[in-house]
């Protein structure tokens, strides 16, 4: 109780400094989360453009350029899992080009559906 009363008499310059420090600490976690998402988006953009085959470089690179900035963390993590997970490069290409049926888990993934829709719009621009 005595400590609270004591802080009332601290000079205004000290209290401004203290308030600024508290403000920095409280915003640090917000900016840290934002920085993490920015780094994740940057990594995924690079990985989308530098695939093992040119076809996926083009498809995934263009998709990433147009969509990563608006995707939330969950979608970014799903996209990361899709492009860097267990599926081979050619399998991803075949799934997207309708040459192979994707596994159920891939087919039901909302990010895969977004990519698939993007690819279909590229194939049939008037639709």
TrEMBL record:
Q: Report keywords, A-Z.
A: Chaperone, Mitochondrion
Q: Which domain of life is it from?
A: Eukaryota
Give the UniProt entry's GO cellular component terms: mitochondrial matrix
Keyword set includes Mitochondrion: yes
Enumerate the subcellular locations listed in this protein's record, separating them with semicolons: Mitochondrion matrix
Q: Which InterPro entries match?
A: SDH, SDH_sf
Taken from the record, one Pfam family name reads: Sdh5
Q: Which GO terms describe its biological process?
A: mitochondrial electron transport, succinate to ubiquinone; mitochondrial respiratory chain complex II assembly; tricarboxylic acid cycle
Tell me the Gene3D superfamilies matching this sequence.
Flavinator of succinate dehydrogenase (1.10.150.250)
Write the protein's name. Succinate dehydrogenase assembly factor 2, mitochondrial
User: Which species is the source of this protein?
Assistant: Heterorhabditis bacteriophora
């Amino acid at each position: 109780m005595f400590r609270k009363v004591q802080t009332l008499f601290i000079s205004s310059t000290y209290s401004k400094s203290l308030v600024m420090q508290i403000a920095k600490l409280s915003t640090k976690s917000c900016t840290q989360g934002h920085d993490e998402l920015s780094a994740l988006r940057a990594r995924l953009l690079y990985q989308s453009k530098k695939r093992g085959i040119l076809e996926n470089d083009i498809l995934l690179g263009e998709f990433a350029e147009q969509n990563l900035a608006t995707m939330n963390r969950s979608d970014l993590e799903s996209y990361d899992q899709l492009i860097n997970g267990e599926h081979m490069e050619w399998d991803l290409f075949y799934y997207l080009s309708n040459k192979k049926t994707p596994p159920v888990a891939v087919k039901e993934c909302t990010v895969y559906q977004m990519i698939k829709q993007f690819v279909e719009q590229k194939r049939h621009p008037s639709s």
